[in-house]
Amino acid sequence: MQNSLNTAYSELPVKVSAPASVPYGNTFLLVGGDGDHIFKFLPETEEWELMPGKLSVSKFGVTAMLIRPEDLGASDIGIAEHLA
Q1: Would you give the distance in Å from CA 53 to the centre of its chain?
Q2: What is the pLDDT of residue 78?
Q3: What is the DSSP secondary-structure string of 42-71?
Q4: Nearest CA to 30 among 4, 56, 3, 54?
Q5: What pLDDT is stored for residue 61 in this prediction?
Q6: Does residue 34 form part of some domain?
Q7: CA distances (Å), 83 to each of 1, 3, 4, 13, 49, in order?
């Protein structure tokens, strides 16, 4: 899997540098990395899906974590529908 992840990382649709990774179900998300994009790795095809949500400001070298909307109150963050 390590080789396939290295290959997949090099095949991102845009150049990223120092993105944060976040576990997400059976896969993970890459957040930021000199941009405002959020990508989900698709292990079945070893490809990347550009998620519809974006960061409000481009980020580089950050830490990210997934917070469930129910932990904050369903209307507090407004991104849950983009990550489904």
Answers
A1: 10
A2: 52
A3: ETTTTEEEE-S---SS-BSS-------HHH
A4: 54
A5: 80
A6: yes
A7: 24, 27, 24, 19, 11
Domain-located, residue 84: no
Q: Is residue 58 part of a domain?
A: yes
Residues 38, 82: Cα–Cα separation, whole Å: 10
Total domain count for the chain? 1
Low-confidence stretches of the chain (pLDDT beneath 50): 1, 76
Q: Identify the pLDDT of residue 69.
A: 72
Q: Which among 60, 67, 63 has a CA at the least distance from the CA of 83?
A: 67
Any idea what DSSP says for residue 74?
T
Domain assignment of residue 39, yes or no: yes
Distance CA 8, CA 45 (A): 10
Write down the pTM of the prediction: 0.69
